[in-house]
Design a protein that fits this description.
Chain lengths: ~240, ~240
């Protein structure tokens, strides 16, 4: 892992890094020393590791909870090169939708394909970041909605270091069987009028989660209209489960 | 209204009162003077105005937010006499359920009947309590689940002083049309494995609410197993909307 020098503002240090081909960013409290909880954040489709909503949440997790937060670019996103195979499939899917196909199963199938690559990538990122002395091997949380949910469900199911997860804005089509293997506490975010994820599919994904403790937060509004107070709730959820 | 002398513990004053035939209890901060927000709480079926979960919530609303809180006995509950008409209907309903009838429509019909009495009773309670100098005519919130939801939906729909409501553990059978007239922010609590309210009916009631801002909180577990952290969320919800 190659780690760039830190920049700092308002008590939060930010370090860009690359791990093999994966560009990432790590946020920690200024002057952090020793082991702490780590939150891995998965960004949305067409977004990247430093999208404004990722940065806003990351800075609050660091400033208010003292956590480390890491985000990396999904293949084909941010500072990563175009992936011809994924691009070809995405183009084919767009053509199918234009011809009248339902988008949800196509999106779910595509996310399941990409997850085969991102699950081991994100596990390698955890290995590397937890090897840093100011992060260490503390409890791990996961936060990701939309694409970050489609890729997050298989990641959380596969990775025993994850102790709690915030997921949402995703449906059950490709992930219900995988979701049943998740047993850690989950806060699941759903937009009641989501124009991209049918309501019944979002409810079915929440239902499919194997966790004994899971909470659904459903709010009025469309896919991109999650209310700001849900971030306050996320902070309290992680504080309960990651310390 | 006849108001008994206050007793006090941990900074919270409690005053029993009667308004006509209605026995009630008012909690306020010790030494309160002047206008403040008022939360009216509706208790559950078979419970009463000082049931432990009502008292616990009321004391936190007073101690942490400085609100006044009022709860009264529903007809046939607590310190009120047995109501022969309600008792007869309840006995008939029990016989129908024993003979194989679905309980949910019977419960909903019964609650709609009782609400014809409790809506004007609770409006009179607001009038009287807001006339006290240490309560005054501030913003009003409503909290009620189960029976407190069945009676609360028509009350919140009818009473313009209510600015925000916590409802839940109830279904849409008798109340969907009334719920559509509610326009204030609502936090709606649903137990995902509720053995008394079918999940689809709880979701339908949330869907029916006319509020532009409404949030569904669904948790694993049965009717009586709402997690303790939902009270923390309720406090923040009222703080956002009642100040």
């Amino acid at each position: 892992m190659r780690v760039n020098p830190a920049t700092s503002s308002d008590g939060v240090s930010e370090q860009l890094f690359t791990l093999g081909e994966i560009p990432g960013v790590l946020w920690t409290p200024d002057g952090a020393a020793g082991t702490r909880a780590l939150v891995l954040m998965g960004h949305g489709g067409g977004q990247h590791k430093k999208a404004p909503d990722i940065v806003d949440r990351a800075r609050r997790f660091v400033a208010e909870c003292g956590y480390a937060v890491v985000a990396v670019d999904v293949p084909g996103h941010g500072d990563r090169p175009t992936d011809e195979r994924y691009d070809r499939i995405a183009t084919e899917n767009q053509a199918r939708v234009a011809a009248g196909a339902e988008p949800a199963p196509l999106i779910a199938g595509f996310q399941a394909l990409v997850a085969r690559q991102t699950v081991p990538e994100w596990q390698a990122v955890l290995d590397a970041v937890q090897g840093l002395p100011h992060v260490g091997a503390g409890p791990v949380g996961y936060w990701g909605v939309s694409l970050g949910c489609g890729l997050g469900v298989p990641f959380v199911a596969a990775e025993p270091r994850v102790r709690a997860a915030v997921l949402g804005l995703g449906g059950a089509l490709a992930t219900a069987e995988v979701a049943a293997r998740i047993t850690v506490p989950v806060e699941f975010l759903l937009q009641w009028d989501d124009e991209r994820v049918p309501r019944a599919q979002g409810l079915a994904l929440f239902d499919a989660l194997g966790s004994a403790e899971k909470t659904l937060h459903a709010n009025t509004g469309g896919h991109g209209e999650m209310p700001a107070f849900e971030l306050d709730s996320t902070l309290r959820f992680f504080a309960r489960h990651l310390g």
